[in-house]
Amino acid sequence: QNILGIETSCDETAVAVYSRQRGLLAHQIYSQVALHAEYGGVVPELASRDHVRKLAPLIAAALAEAGLSRADGIAYTRGPGLLGALLVGGAVARGLGMAWQVPVLGVHHMEGHLLSPLLEPDAPAFPFVALLVSGGHTLLVAVEGVGRYRQLGTTLDDAVGEAFDKTAKLLGLGYPGGPALARLAEDGAPGRFVFPRPMLDRPGLDFSFSGLKTAVALAVRDAGPADHADIARGFEEAVTETLAVKCRRALQETGYARLVVAGGVGANRRLREQLDAAATAHDFRVYFPRHAFCTDNGAMIAHVGALRLPGDARAACAPDPMAVARWPLHELAPPGA
Ligand code: ATP
Ligand code: MG
Ligand code: FE
């Protein structure tokens, strides 16, 4: 049984085929980064239109790569995300489902991210703590199984990826800012700029990144271009240390011994180093998806489809509305529940 996965929640058009028996058979991605670069951020209407242009050829390419002419089920990202962009994926998924007479499932984008480390050969067993760090989310989640998610903490203001992107903008780096800032930080001296570690002195598992952003803005104002790499380094150290400390706290609170990291910021090298070091020092294991599956991709959506189709009869009817801009993760239930 082969599941076609379609992701169009933001600025990546992505398609994959996941086989229940053989695992991932194909994945194709088209990034709109160049399209949005001149505007310094994602323009929703342009994103929708570009998904319309790119989605059908990408589906054809993914099916060809998998050596298939059709799939046995379809999973598409139903939300959260940009409504117009989501509707493109939803409409195409439902149309194909009708044509092929196969079930169609609307997948939660963050569940896709959350379970993406399971796509890797050395997959974590349940239960685990998941750190979801992306452009729109910063979540610590206790995961007992598919659809059994308990939110432990979230951000009170900016998401981590958003903080990376805004800080990159302050430093005059182009869009998308996160990877550019990380590259600049490689050349920076550690410890020259020490920024606040937000909320570390307070109990609990919530985050806040807007104060850090302000501290960086002040430093940038008083510094010259020659200091930018050091500032980037200081920012990155503050963020990754904060994340690492909260992850450890979440593991202690739950008593779990496995940590999973997903979402675009999971591609950050310093974060990986910090968490690897913490795992060695404190005797837990940490799991990352490969870089390509940290940011948006079709494989994670096809994978959730394989886990939830066709057992989830209710979802298989692709409940209305077809797309939702907001969708709290805790509303999900286990397959068939
Ligand atoms: P969401 O999943 O919350 O809807 P999104 O899909 O836009 O948001 P992702 O594609 O998962 O988010 O991740 C994109 C984010 O990851 C951006 O904010 C980007 O700056 C950040 N990012 C990507 N690579 C790196 C890196 N190496 N270091 C830091 N941040 C990074
Ligand atoms: Mg993106
Ligand atoms: Fe995402």
From TrEMBL:
<comment type="similarity">
    <text>Belongs to the KAE1 / TsaD family.</text>
</comment>
<dbReference type="Pfam" id="PF00814">
    <property type="entry name" value="TsaD"/>
</dbReference>
<dbReference type="InterPro" id="IPR017861">
    <property type="entry name" value="KAE1/TsaD"/>
</dbReference>
<keyword id="KW-0408">Iron</keyword>
<keyword id="KW-0819">tRNA processing</keyword>
<feature type="binding site">
    <location>
        <position position="296"/>
    </location>
    <ligand>
        <name>Fe cation</name>
    </ligand>
</feature>
<feature type="binding site">
    <location>
        <position position="178"/>
    </location>
    <ligand>
        <name>substrate</name>
    </ligand>
</feature>
<dbReference type="GO" id="GO:0061711">
    <property type="term" value="F:tRNA N(6)-L-threonylcarbamoyladenine synthase activity"/>
</dbReference>
<feature type="binding site">
    <location>
        <begin position="132"/>
        <end position="136"/>
    </location>
    <ligand>
        <name>substrate</name>
    </ligand>
</feature>
<keyword id="KW-0479">Metal-binding</keyword>
<feature type="binding site">
    <location>
        <position position="109"/>
    </location>
    <ligand>
        <name>Fe cation</name>
    </ligand>
</feature>
<comment type="function">
    <text>Required for the formation of a threonylcarbamoyl group on adenosine at position 37 (t(6)A37) in tRNAs that read codons beginning with adenine. Is involved in the transfer of the threonylcarbamoyl moiety of threonylcarbamoyl-AMP (TC-AMP) to the N6 group of A37, together with TsaE and TsaB. TsaD likely plays a direct catalytic role in this reaction.</text>
</comment>
<feature type="binding site">
    <location>
        <position position="268"/>
    </location>
    <ligand>
        <name>substrate</name>
    </ligand>
</feature>
<keyword id="KW-0012">Acyltransferase</keyword>
<dbReference type="InterPro" id="IPR000905">
    <property type="entry name" value="Gcp-like_dom"/>
</dbReference>
<feature type="domain" description="Gcp-like">
    <location>
        <begin position="24"/>
        <end position="302"/>
    </location>
</feature>
<dbReference type="InterPro" id="IPR017860">
    <property type="entry name" value="Peptidase_M22_CS"/>
</dbReference>
<feature type="binding site">
    <location>
        <position position="165"/>
    </location>
    <ligand>
        <name>substrate</name>
    </ligand>
</feature>
<keyword id="KW-0963">Cytoplasm</keyword>
<keyword id="KW-0808">Transferase</keyword>
<dbReference type="InterPro" id="IPR043129">
    <property type="entry name" value="ATPase_NBD"/>
</dbReference>
<dbReference type="InterPro" id="IPR022450">
    <property type="entry name" value="TsaD"/>
</dbReference>
<feature type="binding site">
    <location>
        <position position="113"/>
    </location>
    <ligand>
        <name>Fe cation</name>
    </ligand>
</feature>
<protein>
    <recommendedName>
        <fullName>tRNA N6-adenosine threonylcarbamoyltransferase</fullName>
        <ecNumber>2.3.1.234</ecNumber>
    </recommendedName>
</protein>
